[in-house]
Design goal:
Blueprint: E1 3-5, E2 8-9, E3 12-13, E4 18-24, E5 27-37, H1 40-59, H2 62-78, H3 80-91, H4 95-112, E6 122-125, E7 131-139, E8 142-146, H5 154-165, E9 169-173, H6 179-191, E10 199-201, H7 206-219, E11 224-228, H8 231-243, E12 249-251, E13 256-260, H9 266-278, E14 288-294, H10 298-311, H11 329-339, E15 347-349, E16 366-369, H12 376-379, E17 386-392, H13 395-403, E18 407-408, E19 410-414, H14 418-427, E20 432-435, E21 451-452, H15 466-469, E22 470-478
Parallel strand pairs: 1-5, 8-9, 8-11, 9-10, 11-12, 13-14, 13-19, 14-17, 16-17, 19-20
Antiparallel strand pairs: 2-3, 4-5, 6-7, 7-22, 15-16, 18-21
Length: 501
């Protein structure tokens, strides 16, 4: 019997809505679940419910909230294999990768469980006697979190865990094509003892979500928006939040460069390019977009890279494969459109493009050599198993090429030269830089995020994300018994500035 998935608001199942079939992309005829998609009113109602629950949750001492986060980590750890299997079934991610994704939730919980005892403010000396100054972190209120489905459980945890730890309530809208995985993660969070209404999950399509968010912002029931998705939708979300004087946390797309210097370990660079370019079928925001390889090693690198791709296994995500199917039909259709961007001056390797034989949404891996600045394949994100290659003669040119598309999420350089590493770090616009490593891969205690078309400078993960889910509050306490006016009633000690020895 097909699973039935509905929104959960205030601890209760939400209303039925428009049915949506979440399919197994490895076997598209197989329906994993029927998801009831709500309208704008369902999203807005969830935000009202969250607002009503948030104040009491904020009163729970932060160290106690930290223990709830610890429980979530243990519950996810105990259910890791089951959750990973759901991810593999629903979005086609190879099982080994899905297990790694689930591990990232545990790592995130392990980091933040202690932050409940470290939501530090400061005691600051005053310029006046008998007066003390303090700063406090306070929760923002209700966070509306909207996530993509390529990392259906790990990326949401980057938002949910710190938001809840800091005393906020959350309305989470996951991707509808990854609803089963999201619903399972929601149930694990709820089992940790979260009060009803503190975490709510809403299933809706993009248009209904946007309209519901607009309504909630207008009603004042949302104080923070977190969004992971495309640059185009991120712009719309940013504009909407700006009208309400809010600064969202935007984690958007990328056109991530990998620079291969003439002294690079080419075997290592090929291994990194293979994983970054084609892992998860190239459906990561940190996937490799363009290899920028020095002209002296271009031919050798390309020969090795093409051979590695030809030898890679693509297929059933339950097996040992480089990648499985595309996430969903809409991503497969979009990828086919990207293939039309290949131009006559390009050289396609290994030689096959388009869909592979079989019932699943499997597509051939493609290397496109000879891409030029100005080509769509060079300038725009391609969410799928396609990697461009171009050449450079000097490091300054490589940095300019890396920055040209205007994204700024992740980047990589392969070299043995420390001077080149630091020149690249200084010049590249990306928020994240890897040295002799792929463009993909994040750890739970480092800031994650991008600039330019990749985001608005907000960061997730580590202690830096606390600035997204708390606001600084300043307090001054004057116990002098009289009104002391700042900058006016300040004692002065007069120096003799004319003194000379």
């Amino acid at each position: 019997m097909t699973r039935q998935i509905v929104s959960v608001i205030g601890g209760k199942d939400g209303p039925s809505g428009t049915p949506y079939e979440s399919i197994n992309p490895a076997r598209p005829a197989e329906t994993v679940a029927t998801v009831q998609l709500g309208g704008p009113d369902v999203f807005a109602d969830a935000c009202r419910t969250a607002a009503a629950a948030q104040r009491e949750w904020a009163r729970v001492p932060a160290p106690v909230r930290g223990r709830v986060i610890a429980s979530i980590g243990r519950l996810v750890e105990a259910n890791a294999e089951t959750l990973a299997r759901l991810v593999t079934q629903e979005v086609g991610k190879p099982y080994a990768e899905a297990l790694g994704e689930v591990r990232e939730i545990v790592d995130t919980c392990d980091f933040f469980l202690g932050e409940g005892r470290r939501l530090y403010g400061q005691t600051v000396p005053s310029e006046m006697p008998d007066k003390s100054l303090f700063t406090f972190r306070v929760p923002v209120g209700v966070a509306a979190v909207i996530t993509a489905g390529n990392f259906p459980v790990a990326v949401p945890s980057w938002y949910l865990v710190p938001a809840l730890l800091c005393g906020n309530a959350v309305v989470w809208k996951p991707a509808e094509y990854a609803a089963v995985s999201a619903h399972a993660l929601f149930r694990l969070f709820a089992a940790a003892g979260l009060p009803d209404g503190v975490l709510n999950i809403v299933f809706a399509d993009g248009a209904a979500t946007f309209a519901g968010l607009d309504r909630a912002l207008g009603e004042g029931t949302v104080q923070k928006v977190g969004f992971t998705g495309s640059t185009a939708v991120g712009r719309a979300v940013g504009e909407l939040c700006g009208r309400h004087l809010q600064s969202p946390c935007l984690e958007l797309g990328g056109k991530n460069p990998m620079v291969v210097m003439p002294d690079a370990d080419l075997d290592l660079a090929v291994e990194g390019a293979l994983f970054a370019g084609f892992g998860t079928a190239g459906q990561r925001c940190t996937s490799l977009g363009t290899v920028i390889v020095h002209e002296d090693v271009h031919d050798e690198f390309l020969t090795r890279f093409a051979e590695a791709v030809r030898n890679a296994k693509i297929g059933d995500p339950n097996g040992e494969v480089l990648y499985g199917p595309m996430l969903d039909h809409k991503f497969a259709e979009r990828y086919e459109d990207y293939l039309t961007w290949i131009e006559p001056h390009h050289t396609v390797l290994p030689g096959s493009t388009g869909r592979m034989e079989g019932e699943g949404l499997y597509y051939h891996p493609v290397i496109v050599d000879g891409v030029r600045p100005g080509d769509r394949l060079f300038m725009e994100e391609t969410f799928g198993p396609i990697v461009g290659v171009t050449t450079f003669t000097g490091l300054d040119e490589a940095i300019e090429l890396a920055n040209r598309p205007g994204y700024g999420l992740s980047s990589s350089i392969y070299t043995r030269d420390p001077q080149a590493v630091f020149r690249f770090r200084e010049g590249v616009s990306a928020g994240m830089i890897s040295v002799n490593n792929s463009t993909s891969g994040a750890e739970a205690h480092l800031p994650f995020g991008g600039n330019g078309k990749s985001g608005n400078g907000s960061r997730q993960s580590g202690m830096w994300v606390l600035d997204q889910f708390t606001r600084w509050q300043a307090m001054n306490w004057d116990y002098s018994g009289r009104l002391q006016k700042a900058q006016m009633d300040v004692a002065e000690i007069t120096p003799d500035l004319g003194f000379r020895i």
